[in-house]
Here is the input.
Amino acid sequence: MPAGRSRGLPANSPPAPGARVYRRKRRSWAGLIYVLPAVLLVLVFFVLPLCMTGWMSLHNWPLLGESRWIGLGNYIALWKDRGFWRALSFTAYYTVAATVGLLGVGMALALFVERPRPGVGFYRTAFFLPVVVGFASASLLWAWLANVDSGLFSPLMRMLGITESPYNLLATFTPAFWLVTGMVIWKMSGFYMVILMSGLQSVPTDFHEAARIDGATRTQRFLHITLPLIRKPIALALILSVTGSMLAFDQFYIILAGGPQNQTMTAVYWIFNQSFVSFRLGYGAALSVVLLAILLVLSVIQLRLLRDREDGR
Amino acid sequence: MTAPLTRQRPPRTRAIMLMQHAAGMLVALLFLAPLAWTVLATFKTKAESGEPPLPPWPVHGVSVENYFSIGQFGSGLSHYVGNSLFVAISTAILTILVSVLAGYGFSRFRFPMKAMLFVLILATLMVPFQSILTPLFLILAALNLQNTLTGLVLIYVTLQLPFSVFMMRNAFDAVPNEIAEAARIDGVKGLRMLVFVLGPLVLPGVVSVGLIAFLNAWNEFLAALVFLTDQDKYTLPVLMTAVRSGRFGAIDWGALQAGVTVMMIPCIVLFVALQRYYIRGLTAGAVK
Here is the structure.
């Protein structure tokens, strides 16, 4: 992305000589006043709650009444909380399925719309449009398409001869799970298309020309030239997809309400239930700390894996 | 594909191109079909709305009944559209104000703890807000903002800050120093410099920041679900989810799809009109 690069990070570039004079004159508290509103918001609505999460996780903290220090009691309880671990392993399962789908479809779309061709603007807009629609809207929309009485999928499946009688996709785990995953891939792959496309466009065309003259096939060129060169956008897409999927809530809450039989309860859903349905705020905080730790570890691992390979070359 | 001779290419490429376009159109149709299906379904009569949507368009006459029947839920459609608009517009305006000021400060001034504060704001990205919902709930209560749209706006603005401050800092960095310097010699400084000299130059960044803040606030679901407990305060996504869960009696799918359409239209219109700013914001946020 030639245009994107110039917009990158000029943060540490040395300022022009004139700029230095300008900035030195301004060295004062004036700048602090400009950034103060942002800093205050971050302190009150981010740093403070983050610290409180840790503090609350060490307490028995009901919604009303006194909270009581119980040390690691919540963590011991969550260690034995089978519901939480089941939710977490379901979330991991969903994360793998969604990430493979999103990156796969996103890459296919990106390859299709990367270079100018007639109608490329239409294709890009069409593939991206579901991204701008909210998760709640998309979930409600698909809940309608999938409902057995007045939805689209059940009669469609009968028309295509897949089933003979009305089929409730939301009643059993496997179809329900793939319906939600399919919805997410429909809704989000345009987003990954854009990220991967900006990577693809930064690959110099001469590399491909050279390889083509040497007789490399299209697949060979993709595997050995394109992929290594766009490792960074892939890493970014991977981390965004894994983090986003591990935090999934809206679609499982709206379409399935965690069902059938609580089998699609995600980690955030479980925390939501503990905190805001059962009002065990301290316990919810402990669950949050664990989820947060897992996410940080996952991100570090992904960054490591992709960086190590880079060093190995 | 490996044909090195140009004279061999035209007929073959044309066939391949046609096939690619056929495939492309098919996939584009798959992406657009659910959206179109919903919008078309909302114009069916009440009786027809309960039937499977085949064909997708109204057969027994066009009707807007469904849009009237969303009005029967709770305090009426316009009330909830008002809530959602208030939240989304306030979030966009506040995000612009706060992030333009901060971007200006971080780009054009030197002050104590500057680097640390910048990192602090960006660090917000590392921690998903889903993990700090519980204490946020208590903080809003302590500020007497529980169950208010204002409290929700403040949280949305904070969530937008890392991306927006980063974007605006870069926008100010990209303005050549000579311009600011020339204005300063003319005696322009401080806020006037920001509004009249630099402001117009960073306008594209402002549009991106405001657009993305608006759309995120308009669409956000989990925080709105947790922090708004009064049915009167609901934003559209929370209201329509209550409809889907059957809180207002048997699910009226036609009305539900009308609600979904009302939620989707602003997103689609804004995106199509301001696509350039949206994608720029997205890639700028992604490059970090």
